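Changelog note: in this version the structure field was regenerated for every chain. One regenerated record is shown below for reference.
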Amino acid sequence: MKTCRVPWWSKHNMFRKKHVLSIGFILVLGALAVFSFKQTGPAQARLESSRDRTIHGRVISKYGPVENARVRVAGTETYALTDKQGRFELPTGQFTGEKLWVTAGKEGWFNNALAANPSGPMKDIFLYPIYLNDHPQYRFISPKTCARCHVKLTRYWDQSKMAHTTSNPKVLDMYYGTDALKRKNVAPGYKLDNPDSGGNCVTCHAPSVAASSPQIKDLKTALWSARTEWDGISCDFCHKIRKVLADKTRPSGRAPILERQTPVKGSSILVFGPYDDVVVPPMAASYSPVMDQGLFCSVCHSHSKKLANSKTWDPGKVYTASEWKGFGLQDNTYLPIQSTYQEWKQWQDQLPPDDANKGKKCQDCHMSWRKKMLPYDNYVVDGQAREMWGTYRSPKNIRPHHFDGGTEIQLKTALSMEIEGKITGNRLNINVFITNTNGGHWVPTGETMRSVMLLLKAVDSNQKPLKMIKGSVLPKWAGTGKIEKGNYAGRPGAMFARVLEDDNGNLNVPFWRATTIAADTRVRPKTTVTLEYVFALDDPEDEPTVEARLIYRPVIKTLAKKKNWVAEDILITSSMW
């Protein structure tokens, strides 16, 4: 049988063909792999698609498109602003579900909302303007009405001093010249010095009555007036403020512009607030940015006095040129009594844009959460109202209405203190550093009866007091008498306060008697006060100790004694050397 032999060159050629085919097959597989890698699978395609989802639409009114309206999914932090044509595009990739509640709000307009699909076009959101038609005869609503839905918020508020400014016993004692035992003719008292004048206390201590019945000036008349809805500053009063404007006729130099309206039909309550996404039947809500600004607080947390008979005083003896300018007073015929707002604003204006404290405002500290409030809330309404209309929010976007100020919690976070010492021969040198670490205003601030004291106690190893040979001592109004009862006059230390003085040289007088400011040693924001003391040592080899205490006193000792008030000191911090 004849066999056919394949030539050697032919075998080699076949091997080359197989090799080429193998390489080609591998390249094809590689190409397919690369192609497959670039293609998204169904799950990844859905993920990328959801990330890119947006809702787009318009905000309009009967006057045409509404520009710069804030549009968001209710309760979220991200919002979009409408353009000149009222158009917006809102990212919705993070949401799941069939429908979203899309809201729109703008200052001067009622908030509104529509349900929308998670992506694509939606129907126009229609906004209605708030017509400026304030009704002075409006009857402010009792906080009890607000408490039906806002249970926790009103509970916080009711425990604050803000809720009871008209009935505050100390305020009434200072106004009428009484004491805690209800005895009359216990000076000082505004009505004792000015029997024919009602003053302007109701402007801030009974603001709803001052707005509704401006003829009422007397505090007790305001307290028992039929136009009074509460014994202090109520929910409805603050939430009727749509704007704050300058007004030189008021003690603070600023006035709240109210919009008091009652609906023709139904029971909706017109309210202004910091939310642009509140759209619920009980309230006709309107977004008001001033509600979340320091300017809102300036209506009452500021007070200046025009001196009588064009009398002047010398601010340069107490304040730097920039501090005096920051008070914003017309000239030196005006006396700054309370300047909390100006202190904060001056501090903010001086901060560079990249400072971490830039933009920090009153509400951030005085309407913030406390550990004792845990667990923090995610709703501003409770009970059945939450079931029907509640909007889930981050706690950082909810302001608990406790208006905390001058409390142990606030004070301990506001001021810090350090102490250092060195023995040189028979001398003990002590330096104390007091820093306003977190106060956005001067500390203490507000009412001038408040003070902060540094109290030093230096003793040798046998607990014998050391003689101070250099340094300041506490003034007479720190209290004379037994130290166990909080009387520290003449002891090593320092006082931080704004001290009002009258024409007779009397210190710590009430504002209506004041004609000048004797001193203002309060601690400015983010500044450190350094105090130096030197004590004599009998034995240079001894081991002395120094205790420094920083104490907040809500009422000057001499005044508290006159008025029989219970006003407990608060220990801010202490340090040993």
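Spot check on this record: DSSP finds 17 helices and 27 strands in the chain. Confidence is low (pLDDT under 50) at residues 1-48.
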